[in-house]
Amino acid sequence: MKNTGMLVNGSLVFMLLLLLAGCQAIFTYSPLSFLQRDPANLPLDQKIAWAENALASGDPEAMATAYDAIKDVSGVDYLAANLALELSGVPQLLFEVMEGDVDYSTITDMNDFLADNVDDEYIVYAAGHFFDTLSNDPDSLTGTDYLLGAACILFNDGGGDLTTLGSVDVTGAGTADDFIQQGILNLPPDDPAIDYLNDLSTFLNDGGIFPP
């Protein structure tokens, strides 16, 4: 596979969102009630349970509190990745794309649009946790996780600043394409996400279809 550099700009990232929307991944959680205690003061098993309930609730404040409580805890990389992912706003934006709720005619600057709809700090956190999960607990990653993880890693490679994404190498070890290739290898051969991962890899290695 050729190792090329590419410009990750607003248009390319939005193309990625459209491609991910095509996989019909649905991000819905049922609200759950749980004790309103500070999880930082709970025993580890209760802290993890609190964080899982916070993720299930979909409440941003609870998820942010839960993320802060477990982000440095060993062995919960996957849970931390999903909390950071939800807090990033990426799943919600994908859902809006899938539902046709995005009025493209009103978008004059793609970077501004993305900056208004996603949280770059949590995207960077999610990218790191997805890579940690790949190293420590790869069996927990689903096809959707590999697609969304790759999206977060692309933002992370760009420095975490959606307004100044520059030329980055998305191929090779420690990059979005490496994460994608691991997904292709690790997922069952009949997993429908593999086709999308292959398409995304080809898209990245071809340098995208949009000019800088």
The counted number of beta strands is 2
Following the backbone from N to C, one meets helices and strands in this order, namely EHHHHHHHHEHH
* Low-confidence spans: 1-10, 24-35, 158-168, 208-212
Helix content: 55-70%
N-C termini distance: 23 Å
Question: Sheet bearing the most strands, described?
Answer: 2 strands, antiparallel
- The proportion of strand residues reads under 5%
Please give the count of helices. 10
Structural class: mainly alpha
Biggest sheet, strands in spatial order? 1-2
Average of the residue pLDDT scores: 76
**Rg measurement, Å:** 17 Å
Estimate the global geometry from the Cα principal axes: globular
List the helices and strands and how they pair.
Elements: E1 5-7, H1 10-21, H2 44-57, H3 60-70, H4 77-88, H5 90-99, H6 110-117, H7 120-136, H8 143-157, E2 167-169, H9 176-186, H10 193-205
Antiparallel strand pairs: 1-2
Helix pairs in contact: 1-5, 1-8, 2-3, 2-4, 3-4, 4-7, 7-8, 8-9, 8-10, 9-10
